[in-house]
User: What shape does this take?
Amino acid sequence: MAILVTGGAGYIGSHTVVELLAAGYEVVIADNFYNSSPKVLDRLKTITGVDVPFVECDVCDKDQVENLFSAHPEIDAVIHFAAYKAVGESVEKPLDYYENNIGGAMTILQAMKRHGVKNFVFSSSATVYGDPETVPCTEDSPANGATNPYGWTKVMQEQILRDLCVSDKKMNVAILRYFNPIGAHPSGLIGEDPNGIPNNLLPYIAQAAIGKYPAVRVFGTDYPTPDGTGVRDYIHVVDLAKGHVAAVKKLFTKCGLVTYNLGTGNGYSVLQVIKAYEKAIGRELEKNYLPRRAGDIAENYADPRKAREELGWTAQYTIDDMCAHSWNWQSNNPNGYKE
Ligand code: WQD
Assistant: This one.
């Protein structure tokens, strides 16, 4: 019995591998290092003491995926992380996003069907809630509101999985809607290493703190929120990873299709996050107050009760932990995995 983790060298994937091993699962990693580094595999070995079986594989390549499943008949569940994830890039290259994200999932699901693998965890996103009419979002909030092609690939894949589960009553699928994952493993050995200028708030703050940028950017100060800046539900990547372990356990109870928000239930504004980061680094950061970023919403945070009640999972780390661990990773690895 083993869990295949596609994108297992990536940011969320690598943290999930650590928690799966800690929970006693056998793991196989598949990754093509499109947005990750082979160094992650060494770091995983240092953290866990385990030499995790690894297959270099493009999830869109049918032959490679078939070979992967044939070589590892012990696989009986898949956590599918491997996908493109940059919102702005998805607007520039919609066909690439639909082809890679939906095509990759189809290739994996078809191989699972051929090999009789019935358990699947899908990386979805709070982006499926679009600009929610009310917060917090529950799993029953309308989830067809994507505002960019990246988000639509998540909405569409969720629908494909619901259709699949109608057709095959033996399939067990956990759709996990992530809020805003940040932070890093407390060891400082693995963390987020974006290519180019970071789009997301935390990696940008981290790189400003290390001196790569003169100031942090605050996109919008006139939102209808307490301090005028955008509010999100930031969740420690290790808590998120543990949510996947809980979801895998749920699949093995033969639950059919289930959908969970993975968030803390707490909203923090951009300025509150910057303040927490300043606390972690022990000094103030320069701020550059800019207009709103196109496509951004004012506020989004999770109602995480369903995951607590049905998975027995709740996020444990605070915003201060998230910032401290992010800084531990960034200051120990100023260039990420690219030394
Ligand atoms: C958070 C807040 C910004 C950068 C996106 C995707 C979502 C998911 C996670 C996953 C907002 C503000 C940001 C900066 C800032 N994708 N901000 N200065 O937009 O909530 O979610 O990432 O793979 O699908 O949409 O996250 O971190 O970009 O922004 O002020 O330099 O920080 O305006 O209010 P977002 P984010």
In short: The longest helix spans residues 94-114. The two ends are 36 Å apart (CA to CA).
